[in-house]
């Protein structure tokens, strides 16, 4: 692998000097743990070789409120049975409410222009009132609170009140259909459901309440339903008894006591996509999440008091949980509800400019969209924008270059990767290292990531392989809810390599010290025994101006694997022979002959999950004649009909 000619962004001495990362290094130097320097790889190496000291000092440096205890890591030979901060005690909500003044804590903006703000003082009071209500209705520790809500201030208040009382939160965004919600919430048996009357998307007002009666018939454990109005006053127009969120806040007493819980007390339950079966209920611990998010926001994202964070997300994506964690740094969070391209394709970037956002986060696919649309934002003022974070899928080289050419030259573009399983990052950005096109800057501090071959052994430098974690880390899930003898848990992370966390990404280290994600391991193509990441093909195809989107899978054929590329074209263009040859030649020239698809087929629509991820495995199953379960996990399930017909009439019986 050749070194890139030049970096796209290099932190100058002033950035390094003012960074939280530098202050942390000075902190370690003062304690004579690690001599001060600005070498990130050296700091990461120290952090994974000295995990007790590292995590202890992250607690100290980020000023976690609570009792730290003395058992920083209680070791066990079994990877996932290592326990962090076993004798510590803390309250997650208390740590996310570091201020009680009249500064703005939360901003909410809807696509239709509704704008609300809440101060730290009001946020604190509302959380204490809502937590009193939970206590008043006799909810006990570890009872589950389910939320079917848009990304609003009330959602954050509800979550913090839930965690304050040691209850367990779980949320779905309102774009989920009833069956998708039932598949998730039915497994955890919630006692309370919190919801909203409606939400907006792409100019449409969408009713949520009309779905609730059917939901209650399917989940019998729900005893009370609390509703907050999207705006104005709540009006109950259906024959179901609801409690009004605003009346609860107005009339409830306040509970100002923050009980301290165990470090790994369950905080929330997140869900796998469900595209391969019933969603797995991934349960994360309160202290585990707190210390990881403190580390990421402070040391990797350089977030400090009063910084403004805007991450475009819904409550059904783990980035919502991550975003809310920014409150612990005293940051001002911006919550957005609606379509990212309504009323204008530039809406999100207009918002960043107008509100003077410091950290803007979005999916890689959205940046790809901006590039495809050839939007230029040089007329907007991004003087306050310090970091752009991208996740959800690999960010290709051309999209890196688009950001620096068309959005801002001197911004820190941090491609990050981790997932719901760790509710954070395994590889991400930092303020010491350069940004190179198409690469994630480096490892997450304290997490011993590596790249293994199929045989479970470390591979040679710069070869592609499996992303693994070799040592225990705090944000491993504490368990899967209702998982008998941890069977699903062990199968998910430890079935491939013995006592090594297998994350499921096909990756490559670079000579610059960074990482390239080539796609999911289970979607990797394998023609002639050569492993090819799907992202390698996407990068070539989606730079072709007449292609809007694409999806690539491998199909078992003649004792080998053939590559099939599906493309969605712009406008009403039809794919012709010359187009197919052009695509194949481009892939062959820029990748290799092995990368060239055997078939290129035009399709009307790409099937995706509700968080916008392409469902390669689902399509792969269909073109092998396998049954696809849990269609509720797909945002556009009717798109699968085309693939079913294609398999039946063509891909299964061609000569």
Features:
alpha/beta, Rossmann fold, five-stranded parallel beta sheet, 20 helices, 655 residues, seven-stranded mixed beta sheet, globular, single chain, GMP Synthetase, Chain A, domain 3, 2 domains
Brief description of this entry?
With about 650 residues, the protein is α/β, with parallel strands linked by helices. Strand 1 and strand 2 form a beta hairpin.
Protein described:
With 655 residues, the chain is of the alpha/beta class. It folds into two domains: 89-509, ANL, N-terminal domain (Rossmann fold, 3-Layer(aba) Sandwich), CATH 3.40.50; 524-651, GMP Synthetase, Chain A, domain 3 (2-Layer Sandwich), CATH 3.30.300.30. Helix content is 30%, strand content 22%. It has a seven-stranded mixed β-sheet with strand order 5-4-17-16-18-19-20. The protein has a five-stranded parallel β-sheet with strand order 7-6-8-11-12, with helices on both faces. A hairpin with a 2-residue loop joins strand 9 and strand 10 (204-207). It is globular, with a radius of gyration of 24 Å. The mean pLDDT is 94.
